[in-house]
């Protein structure tokens, strides 16, 4: 999200684009949706220290992730 709360443009192209677009993109996005939906369905997520995640300091790589972010998963009953 941008500073004003709007959805920012996705400037990464993990599946390529144009004529070189990955044939498995649709399948990969479907599986990713299924995995995330299952995790959210089965667990409650919370920050370990109870503080909101700081998105300013990031670890670059295949996927960008916030530094020193720990999430607790507790099973839903």
Structural notes for this entry:
It is built from 1 helix and 4 strands. With 77 residues, it is an alpha+beta fold. It has one domain (18-75). A two-stranded antiparallel sheet has the order 1-4. It has a two-stranded antiparallel sheet with strand order 2-3. A hairpin with a 5-residue loop joins strand 2 (58-59) and strand 3 (65-66). The longest helix has 18 residues, at 25-42.
Short description:
Helix content is 23%, strand content 18%. The chain is an alpha+beta fold. It has one domain.
List keywords for this structure.
single chain; 77 residues; alpha+beta; two-stranded antiparallel ribbon; 4 strands
Calculate the mean pLDDT score and round it: 82
The low-confidence parts are none
* Computed Rg: 16 Å
Structurally, the number of domains stands at: 1
Give the overall silhouette. Answer: extended
Structural class, from helix and strand content?
A: alpha+beta
Largest sheet, strands/sense/barrel: 2 strands, antiparallel
How much helical structure, as a percent, in the residues? 10-25%
Largest sheet strand order: 1-4
What percentage of the residues does DSSP assign to strands (E)?
Answer: 15-25%
Compute the separation of the termini in Å.
Answer: 32 Å
Number of strand segments: 4
SSE string, helices as H and strands as E: HEEEE
Helix count, DSSP H or I runs of 4 or more residues:
1
């Amino acid at each position: 999200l941008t500073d004003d709360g709007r959805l920012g443009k996705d400037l990464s192209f993990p599946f390529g684009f144009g004529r070189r677009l990955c044939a498995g993109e649709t399948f990969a996005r479907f599986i990713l949706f299924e995995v995330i939906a299952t995790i959210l369905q089965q667990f409650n997520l919370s920050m370990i220290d109870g503080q909101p995640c700081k998105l300013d300091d990031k670890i670059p790589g295949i996927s960008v992730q916030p530094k020193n972010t720990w999430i607790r998963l507790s099973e839903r009953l």
